[in-house]
Design goal:
Strand order of the largest sheet: 2-1-3-4-5-6-7-8
Helix content: 25-40%
CATH topology of the largest domain: Fructose-1,6-Bisphosphatase, Chain A, domain 1
Number of helices: 6
CATH class of the largest domain: Alpha Beta
CATH architecture of the largest domain: 2-Layer Sandwich
Shape: globular
Structural class: alpha+beta
Order of helices and strands: HHEEEHEEEEEEEHEHEEH
Number of strands: 13
Distance between the termini: 23 Å
Length: about 250
């Protein structure tokens, strides 16, 4: 097994390649080969694959699917999480990368592709923002809670305020560092690439994480979808998922 530090180095090299591929990109509104894809997704994916294929690792990418590598590890890749934001000139999108050994997360990285802010985590090694340790807000109730969501929230979400920002990975990192108190996908429609790195970062920061229907969050199926939930505390999580307190994963 590759050392954890080496995995982080590979993820940073991959993020560098993605960032460089978009630095001179000028076709932000162009579509890709699929109706739900942009040209920017394909450009970023090709840059990521150049690095990861050269390293001989397995890859599960939103844009290009699953390919095997020389070992048991797979890098789960969302080359641009928030690509609709990017296509519309909204400066809030990132690259999200997570190494799993089998289905066990080992290392994760989320880099904001406009500001350059970088979140990282390793299994049992804590979570960091630009190299500094992070932790969640500790909020336990919805009274003053600010929650990131995917979907259309209704009155049953009993929190103070919500934010619909368009990037699950960045929202999860915001929970990990206390900017948001929680995050929930109201439609249970996330691919694993949307949240894998963010969930590891939340776990290592000390946040509560789970899934809306108690399904396993980590898998290697391109077609499966999940409803990730993250919260600053288990008490707040029970309010968000409506099913009582669950064990952290």
């Amino acid at each position: 097994m590759t050392a954890v530090g080496d995995w982080l180095g590979l993820l940073q090299e991959t993020a560098d390649a993605v960032q460089a591929s978009l630095s001179t990109f000028d076709r932000w509104h162009d579509g890709g080969d699929r109706p739900d894809q942009y040209a920017l997704d394909q450009i970023a994916d090709a840059a990521a694959l150049d690095v990861l294929d050269a390293a001989g690792v397995g890859v599960l990418s939103e844009e290009s699917g699953l390919r095997s590598g020389s070992g048991d590890e797979t890098v789960i890749v969302d080359p641009v999480d928030g690509s609709t934001n990017a296509s519309r000139g909204i400066p809030h999108y990132c690259v999200s990368l997570c190494v799993v050994d089998g289905l066990t997360p080992v290392a994760g990285l989320v880099r904001h592709l406009v500001s350059g802010e970088e979140f990282t985590a390793t299994a049992d090694g804590g979570a960091h923002r630009n190299g500094h340790p992070i932790s969640p807000s500790g909020r336990e109730t919805g009274e003053r809670a600010v929650i990131g969501v995917s979907g259309r929230p209704g009155p049953e979400l009993r929190v103070w305020q919500v934010r619909v920002l368009g990037s699950a990975a960045l929202d999860l990192c915001a929970v990990a560092c206390g900017r948001l108190d929680g995050y929930i996908d109201l439609n249970s429609n996330h691919g694993v690439w949307d949240y894998a790195a963010g969930i590891l970062i939340c776990d290592e920061a000390g946040a509560w994480t789970g899934e809306a229907d108690d399904k396993e969050l980590f898998h290697l199926s391109h077609g499966e979808r999940r409803g990730p939930i993250a919260a600053s505390t288990a008490q707040l999580a029970s309010l968000l998922d409506g099913s009582g307190q669950r064990d952290r994963r």
